What does this fold into?
Amino acid sequence: MLAITQTAAEALDTIVASVPDAPETSGLRISPSTGGDGQPGFRLDLAVKPEPGDQVIDGPAHPVFVDANIADELDDKVLDAQIEGDRVGFMLAQA
It folds into this structure.
């Protein structure tokens, strides 16, 4: 199952808190996407609830929802974040 670092959990908490009227159940959803270069990649969006079939990973305050089509691919990964000022960058690394 995808692991979540403390830094990523704190970044997600900050993002959800910055959205007016965001429900406490809101989380980060990771889904498949295609990059600008046409290569497969991942899309990260703030979501109010998981989509049907999503894998739900409980974070300290907010969950991460992983699209069922990529859950196996992310099974051995760690979601981390880098925070610079008011910017957050999420990254996936090998566990």
In short: The mean pLDDT is 91. The beta strands are 3-4, 27-34, 40-47, 55-57, 64-66, 77-84, 87-94. Residues 12 and 33 are 20 Å apart (CA to CA). The domain at 3-94 is CATH 2.60.300.12 (Hypothetical Protein Aq_1857; Chain: A;).
